[in-house]
């Protein structure tokens, strides 16, 4: 819906609400306020949206409209999600699911479970999230909702991504994109292509990733989805980083941060600042990098993103390493590893242990370094991160050389040669 259409929609719903109120039609007014709240959501006017949904829910309850109240609470939960009020969001989605079940609304309950799964994802409860998305997909399939099932499969793919199951993730995103295309959902297909681009990134297919992110950004812009476009630009900036195009990367991250700030998305802005800090690191601007990582960590902590804060602390540790502050660096890497473990992020934990191994190398603690690199290699292998595993094996070879274990060093060199990642040393960031 374009901006001028949003103006017309808002005016129509306000007029309708006034007429229904004059006619003492409680049910009609409740429907109008629910629709008005959705307009406010599209404009990222969260205070107005929350007020509309609360008033709509009160009117639907008064009219004993179980289905209508369920829809209002589902929308209210989305407002709470955007504000990172996870407890309130979970309560709203559970109440909505109960009402939709009471009304025998299979599709409505499916969307509630989809949203509940997203709450679990934000809390890093992957088992609960997967169960919610699978149940939602079953309900949407039962109700023959192509759009709903597409949304469920997209989110299920994200669970697979977090677990490092790239084949399953790619299959989920491709299936979701096909369903969203069938449903003519520009927004949904944009989300799928963005996630598919992230799979390509993990596999170091930069051309495919860039194409996916550019197409996703075009679709999100067409749908006037500020959050989605911000996320696409963030990912596009990461592609530029991998190609050492720092000017393009910085521009993408700054644009993404502006969009996320406009949408009041503190987690998105936190990710943008994290990546902006990486640009500063590449340019040896350590003060700017430290400030960006600390700001990102504060935003991720505020948004209760364990995964995000872990990434920030890993990068902050690298700043300390470059300044020779080894105690501070070790504390940062250990805290990052604990957070990544809590988030079940094998890739992140592998990066932390790799950095910790480098720190031990700098202190000539070769046994500790060896253990750290071996554990990091196992985690990177599990996450199918060949670049990361290559780094770990190279570092292990250096440890073995320092220990005088020449046979082991040669073995690591052979393993490294078997990994088909040309040029990885120039492309790899230690903390992703």
Q: What is the number of helical segments per DSSP (H or I, 4+ residues)?
A: 22
Low-confidence parts lasting 5 or more residues at pLDDT below 50?
Answer: 420-428
Helix content: over 70%
Radius of gyration: 24 Å
Largest sheet: none
Number of strands: 0
Q: How would you spell out the order of helices and strands?
A: HHHHHHHHHHHHHHHHHHHHHH
Assembly category? single chain
Structural class: mainly alpha
Write the topology of this structure.
Layout: H1 3-22, H2 26-42, H3 46-62, H4 66-82, H5 86-102, H6 106-122, H7 126-142, H8 146-162, H9 166-182, H10 186-202, H11 206-222, H12 226-242, H13 246-262, H14 266-282, H15 286-302, H16 306-322, H17 326-342, H18 346-362, H19 366-382, H20 386-403, H21 406-418, H22 424-427
Helix pairs in contact: 1-2, 2-3, 2-4, 3-4, 4-5, 4-6, 5-6, 6-7, 6-8, 7-8, 8-9, 8-10, 9-10, 10-11, 10-12, 11-12, 12-13, 12-14, 13-14, 14-15, 14-16, 15-16, 16-17, 16-18, 17-18, 18-19, 18-20, 19-20, 20-21
